[in-house]
Write a structure and sequence with these properties.
0% strand, flat
Amino acid sequence: MVSFPSEVLKQLRVHLEQEKKELVARIAELSAQDPFSDPDRASDNAASDTEASEESSHDRFAAMVDELKAKLVSVDAALIRIGDGTYGYCTNCQSMIDTDRLGILPTATLCLSCETKKAHG
């Protein structure tokens, strides 16, 4: 099994760990801004239009947080693969993932061929 040069993996790990910190901070920031996170919200008697606006905002915040959490899972998984020596290999066919693909999407788990097969079902 061919592996990436250790210097490349080291730089990638630093990049992914920084991305992880930014994702965690952004999730915390969005969670704090969510109108449903206000402890006084349950006891206030907001008008129905305010309630609807808060619910809409909550749904938007929840969707953004879910998307960031999914990215965080991908980053964590990539860091694990770097640690165990499987980074850069397709989790489906074990072929090496093209470095251009990893340059664009460092958390990729599938080679382009397997990704294409998955997308076309």
